């Protein structure tokens, strides 16, 4: 069993639209293990760290106010190639390019309201997990269903 981890967040629009169970289900059904979860209202400081690379972009102020507009469901998933697989499950950033069957392809029409976030590399996953979660908030366990025959 791979111990690769990724950070997946259901953004304020996804939480308010009641999409939590639909989104979490896609990761569970695919075979990934949930190791961290919390509903949290992120601070501006946390979001500035999280989106450090985007601070100079013209859309940054609207991204910040969108992400501050309500609680976010922060999650950590573990499993083989989960970073790349997580991005594939989410679909392209711009819903215009997200394939039907992906989360954004099924639930979003606007890049500024694209429902969920997923880490784009193992390096950013490690940074984001450490930013959003304390070590003791992440569970270590072996689900009975894993290690399929
Ligand atoms: P995310 O971090 O949310 O998973 O998205 P991403 O890696 O696919 O895309 P990124 O470039 O990191 O952008 C972060 C979020 O900023 C908003 N955005 N708006 N041109 C725009 O108006 C624009 N570009 C990006 C989106 O909400 C995107 O998910």
TrEMBL record:
GO terms for cellular component: cytosol; mitochondrial intermembrane space. Signal peptide: none annotated. GO terms for biological process: CTP biosynthetic process; DNA damage response; GTP biosynthetic process; UTP biosynthetic process. Keywords: ATP-binding, Kinase, Nucleotide-binding, Transferase. Pfam families: NDK. GO terms for molecular function: ATP binding; nucleoside diphosphate kinase activity. ATP binds at residues 11, 59, 87, 93, 104, 114. Its EC number is 2.7.4.6. HAMAP family: NDP_kinase (MF_00451). Belongs to the NDK family. PROSITE patterns: NDPK, NDPK_LIKE. It comes from Hyphopichia burtonii NRRL Y-1933. CDD domains: NDPk_I (cd04413). Residues 3-140 form the Nucleoside diphosphate kinase-like domain. The active site is at residue 117. SUPFAM superfamilies: Nucleoside diphosphate kinase, NDK. Its cofactor is Mg(2+). It catalyses: a 2'-deoxyribonucleoside 5'-diphosphate + ATP = a 2'-deoxyribonucleoside 5'-triphosphate + ADP. This is Nucleoside diphosphate kinase.
């Amino acid at each position: 069993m791979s111990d690769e981890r990724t950070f997946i967040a259901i953004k304020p629009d996804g939480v308010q639209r009641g999409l939590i169970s639909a989104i979490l289900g896609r990761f569970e059904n695919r075979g990934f293990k949930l190791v961290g979860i919390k509903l949290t209202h992120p601070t501006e400081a946390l979001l500035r760290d999280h989106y450090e690379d985007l601070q100079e972009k013209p859309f940054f102020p609207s991204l910040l106010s969108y992400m501050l507009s309500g609680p976010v469901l922060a999650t950590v998933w573990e499993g083989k190639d989960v970073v790349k697989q997580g991005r594939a499950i989410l679909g392209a950033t711009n819903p215009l390019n997200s394939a039907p069957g992906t989360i954004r392809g099924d639930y979003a029409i606007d890049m500024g309201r694209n429902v969920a976030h997923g880490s784009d590399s193992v390096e950013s996953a490690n940074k984001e997990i450490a930013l959003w979660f304390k070590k003791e908030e992440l569970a270590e366990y072996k689900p009975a269903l894993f290690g399929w025959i």
